[in-house]
Amino acid sequence: MPQMSPLMWFSLFILFSIALILFNQMNFFSFKQNLIKKLEKSTNNSKSLIWKW
């Protein structure tokens, strides 16, 4: 059974690393993050908690 050369192992490592990075990037950017709506809701909640003595 022939063995792989070190350069071939390195190219295989680079290939799988690029595939992993692309997969993670696609998963990260495929979901919309509604941060603005969450911030608006939190400010509305804080306004309603102000007590008027």
TrEMBL record:
Superkingdom of origin organism: Eukaryota
Record keywords, A-Z: CF(0), Hydrogen ion transport, Ion transport, Membrane, Mitochondrion, Transmembrane, Transmembrane helix, Transport
Gene Ontology cellular-component annotations: mitochondrial membrane; proton-transporting ATP synthase complex
One example GO MF annotation: proton transmembrane transporter activity
Pfam families given in the database record: ATP-synt_8
InterPro entries recorded: ATP8_metazoa (IPR001421)
Membrane-spanning segments: 6-23
Membrane-protein topology: Single-pass membrane protein
An example Gene Ontology biological process: proton motive force-driven ATP synthesis
Cellular localization per UniProt: Mitochondrion membrane
Keyword Repeat annotated: no
Keyword Flavoprotein recorded: no
Family: Belongs to the ATPase protein 8 family.
Self-association state and partner proteins as the record states: F-type ATPases have 2 components, CF(1) - the catalytic core - and CF(0) - the membrane proton channel.
Protein name listed in UniProt: ATP synthase complex subunit 8
Organism per entry: Peripolus nepalensis
Gene name of the encoded protein: ATP8
